[in-house]
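Incident review: delayed structure delivery

Summary: a single-chain prediction request sat in the queue longer than the usual turnaround. Root cause was a stuck worker, restarted by the on-call engineer. No data loss occurred. The affected request and its eventual output are reproduced below so the record is complete for anyone auditing the incident later.

Affected input:
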Amino acid sequence: MPVDVIMPQMGESVSEGTILKWLIKEGDRVEKEQPIVEISTDKIDTEVPSPVNGVIKKILYPEGKTLPVQTVIAQIEAVEEGKEVRISGKGTEVTKKAEEVASSMFIEKIDEAEKKYSPLVRKLAKEYNIKLEGIKGTGEGNRVTKKDIMDYMASKSGITEIKTRQVEPRVIEREVLIPTNQKRKITAERMVQSKRTAPHVTTVFEIDMTKVAQYREINKDNLIKEGIHLTYLPFITVATVNALKEFPILNSSWTDDGIIQKNYINIGIAVSLEDGLIVPVIKDADKKDILQLAREIQDIAQRSRSKKLKPENIQGGTFTITNYGLNGSLFGTPIIVLPQVAILGVGAVVKRPVIINDAIAIRLMVYLSLSFDHRVMDGANADKFLRKIKDILESWETSVYEPKKSSPPTGYGGVW
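Output delivered after worker restart:
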């Protein structure tokens, strides 16, 4: 009996998914846990693995199809090593050992490939107006080669010159419709919902990152040995976590019955992908030091781009950080990820002239923007929150990194 492959439910609130790409074809042999299809939901893009060893019997829906969760999207004829499997055909049933099934499938693929012609051969046949069926192939598997076509032309008259191809004029359309994928549609819906629901206000602070940069420079060799690429983002995350402890109203959500304050801190880190944005979550960020946060930020970014995230990796966020400075943007006004009540935007860290003690100095500066829900807090709360982040970052301790430091250095806000 065939084994069903279903559209999985990637999160409690997910009701449907879209088939992005089939990684196999009907008749292909697959191993258990081998990725067979890429799917997209409003939460995550991921690969669905094969539940068993077997042969793809039927693909039920094409790429681009959006389906409810738990819908059967494919069927696999289970195959166990050394055991017999029954493959159903039109009106007949044939029993073969698993090895024989794989072998026969492989032979069928070779036979099919042998009937095909290479792109070069097809191009020459078109240019010389030659019917390939009339040429005997001398290549591997009796395939027609370029030499076969040249020999054929030499034996015939009237086809020694390539026909002149008609070049159609290139038409540049003034307007082009770009279809939106499922992820972009869902993102659009969520952003509109957020703007309609929460009255957004944005406040911006300028922060001197010079001490943080000095810390990175002093300790970079030790960190590289541990496989850590310490960007500015982990420092900002540490400062944000400590600020959330002092101002927990920003770590909450709005309901009609009141404000729900979260006593745990799960930081969402926005990751830009080719086809949209995803926000994986670092759970219990307040219990992790800067090196642990740096490792996790690297890990979730890599898994986001390789579509290796699990549903639990994108659920439960209480506060989000988005680093648009990666692309050179100085500051922006990010949209809140509901039901959260605030989001921190990080601009590019750049050298700028600033006034220090009535003298002009060159410092590494960054703009941090905080978009917040005005139903939950006023501007004074938001500004105090950003002021706390500023104080932590600008007073960062630059002492040499010690892997087994017994007590946290100053300027870390108590997190190490």
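Verification: The mean pLDDT is 80.
Action items: add queue-age alerting; document worker restart procedure.
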